[in-house]
Every structure is written in C-alpha cells, then in structure tokens.
TrEMBL record:
Residues 13-33 are annotated as: Disordered. GO terms for molecular function: calcium ion binding; hydrolase activity. Keywords: Hydrolase. The gene is aprA. Its EC number is 3.4.24.40. Coiled coil: none annotated. Gene3D superfamilies: Serralysin-like metalloprotease, C-terminal. This is Serralysin. Pfam families: HemolysinCabind (PF00353). InterPro entries: Hemolysin-typ_Ca-bd_CS, Hemolysn_Ca-bd, Serralysin-like_metalloprot_C.
Length: 380
C-alpha cells in the first residue's frame, strides 16, 4: 500500500497495488494485476506493449481519477472521467491482436469497451462500444487517424424500424453523412455538402440489402429537389424515373428512361405562366426527338411527329385536337420546305367537310382545295 503522492509499478507476476491516500500513479505490469487507487486523484497507467499479456483490474475509480495510455501512436492518451462518475470497475486487456482494449463498468448503466487499433495499416485509431446491463450493444464511436469520427446508435430495445444509425463527421466535427441500417438489411445514406463544392445541400440514397440502389433524393442549394426512382426489381418497362420539384414542392419536370433505351419527358407549367399545362416529349435511343405533344389550358392538344430517321418525304407532321377529341387541323411539312395544312369542320357548321392549303417553301399559298358537304371538290 502506498500513502501520499506515490508511484507503483507492477512486475511480471500478478500483483496487487494500492495507492492509499493522496494522488497516486499505479502502473500495471505484464501479469493480471489489481490496482486500487484509494483517495485522491489517481492515475492508472497502461502501456501498449505486446509483452504485457495480463488482464488488469482497477477496483476503485473516482471522478478525479484518470486512465493514461502510453506507447500508442507515439503519444500519451487519457480517458476522461466526466461521464464515468461512480465507476466500480475498470479492466484493461493487454495483447489483443492489433488492438488494445479497456473495458469500463458503469454501475446501473452497463459497460463500455474502449478499443485502440494498433494495426499499422488501419485508419481507425480509437473506438468505443457501449453496452447496457443485459450486455446489449447500445452505442459506439470510432475515431480515425485523419480526425474524422463515426458515431453509432443501436436499436437495442428493438423499438425502431432500424437496427443502427451511423453518423460520420469530418475532422472539424461537421456531419457529412448519416447511414441508417434497417431491420431487413436494407439501408439508406444521406450525405451533406459541408464543403460547399456542389450545387446541392444533401443527397439521400436508399439501397436493398444486396446493395442495389432503389431511390435518390437530391436537395439543391436553391431549395428545389430532384427525386429518382430505380426499377431495381425489374418489374416495370422503365429503368429510371426522375422528377424535379420547385421550392414549393410543385412538380416541374419528369423524365422516364425506358428499358428499350428511349426516353419520355414531361414539362409542367407549374407557375401557370403559359397557355399550356404540360408538354410531353419522346426521344429515341439516340436522343432524337420523335414526338412532342403540348396539352393546352383549354383541354386541347397539339401533337408533332418528327421524321427523325429521314425515312419519309416530310420532316414534321402536326395535328391539333380539341378538348372533345375532334381533329381541328393537320399540317405536313415536306423535306423541300413546302407545307400542306388540312382544316376540318368538326362541328358541322360549315358548308365544307375540310379544306387543304398548299404553301410554297417561301410561305405563299399555292392552292386551296375544299371538300364540300355534298362530296364535291372546289379549288380556289
């Protein structure tokens, strides 16, 4: 037993060291030692050394005591005690392969295991795992050589739909990613642009238990966002569906990537600033426009088909349909610039069924042919 401010070093055998009164320093040796600090602010020293193979026990531990670790990464470490008041037992386990463990017993709370990674190839330098009184893992923390950390929260009571949440912070303590592991093995990751190097603030991705991406939500700096859904189970005729929303959550644009390589796009007049409600565009595998349909505010629509592969003698064919599905007119634009437009008497209020106008490449009217109600033709 040591009285006053003293130091005591254990030998290679299993020793019992007692500090007594005063501020003492007790160093565990190679054996399985018992260290009792007694009164005062005591320091219990453990040295990272593969020669020390014992399992040391600290039998008392007060709020002013410290555990000092030496020989690790060429710098001393100290476990602070602010959260360890009332500790009844501290155990240090030496000579664990590539690591050094300190196990702390917290009365009425559980256990903490502090692991120091001594592997020269590992980026992890320090980890803490916390257990409750039934030995269920409740939380953990990993500290890396670059100063970054990982905080882990476990659903030990099985009250949540997830099994664990992992919070990753950079060297200055900014949360740059959160990963949630769900009970079924699926998981999601939310990353944050803490360095402001991108045009977005966060990116949320969800995955199956096999690591296949299911969805993606990109929140942009201006408050808008882009949602992406993947056909990860191959149950649809498309592989990817993207939707853009403005700052008020209104749908502005939608794009579907189909299994056959084609693309469908829909633009929405979310601000009601145009005379149309939405525009649907179809693209082929070469991203060439094949069709575009404009849905007007009055319920009518205008469709344009494109001769994308130059297999016809026209470049575009346009058709206008009213809200009741009646064709109002159709226009065919020829390869040489000429244009043919046919108007229809869809409501039967005129003396003709339809009339065809032929325009030259310069836009002048060449001829107009009426098909009258009696079936005869009239050329103007």
């Amino acid at each position: 037993m040591l009285l006053g401010n003293s130091a005591s070093l254990a030998t290679t055998a299993g020793d019992t060291l007692s500090g007594g009164d005063g501020n003492d320093t007790l160093v565990g040796g190679s054996g399985s030692d018992q260290l009792t600090g007694g009164q005062g602010a005591d320091v219990f020293v453990f040295i990272f050394d593969t020669e020390q193979t014992g399992f040391d026990t600290i039998t008392d531990y007060s709020g002013e005591d410290r555990i000092a670790l030496y020989g690790y990464e060429n710098r001393p470490l100290t476990l602070e005690t602010e959260s360890y008041l009332g500790i009844s037992g501290v155990f240090a386990l030496h000579n664990v392969p590539d690591s050094f463990d300190v196990m702390v017993h917290l009365p009425d709370i559980g256990w903490e295991v502090h692991t120091f990674d001594t592997s020269p190839t590992s980026n992890v330098v320090y980890a803490v795992a916390s257990y409750n009184l039934t030995s269920a893992l409740i939380s953990g923390k990993v500290s890396n050589a670059d100063g970054s950390t990982e905080d882990i929260i476990y659903d030990f009571a099985n009250e949540q739909p997830y099994s664990s949440v992992h919070i990753y912070k950079n060297s200055v303590g900014q949360n740059h990613m959160t990963e949630t592991i769900l009970d079924d093995g699926a998981y999601n990751k939310r990353s944050y642009d803490v360095d402001h190097v991108s045009n977005h603030t966060s990116l949320l991705r969800t995955f199956t238990s096999g690591g296949v991406e299911k969805t993606r939500v990109l929140e942009l700096d201006n408050g808008s966002r882009t949602d992406t859904v993947f056909d990860w189970a191959s149950q649809s005729a498309w592989t990817e569906l993207r939707r853009n929303f403005d700052v008020d959550g209104r749908l502005t644009f939608e794009e579907t990537l189909n299994d056959n390589g084609t693309t469908s796009q829909i633009s929405y007049d979310y601000a009601n600033a145009s005379n149309w409600a939405r525009i649907v565009t179809e693209l082929n595998v070469a991203d060439q426009m094949t069709m575009q349909r404009r849905y007007m505010d009055d319920g009518s629509n205008i469709t344009v088909n494109f001769d994308f592969d130059d297999s016809r003698n026209w470049t575009q064919y346009q058709q206008s349909v009213d809200a009741n599905g009646n064709v109002l007119y159709g226009t065919q634009i020829m390869d040489d610039g000429r244009r043919f437009t046919t108007h229809f008497d869809h409501d039967g209020t005129r003396t003709w069924q339809s009339y065809l106008q032929h325009f030259g490449s310069d836009g002048t009217v060449i001829s107009t042919t009426f098909q009258l109600d009696d079936g005869s033709l009239f050329i103007a």
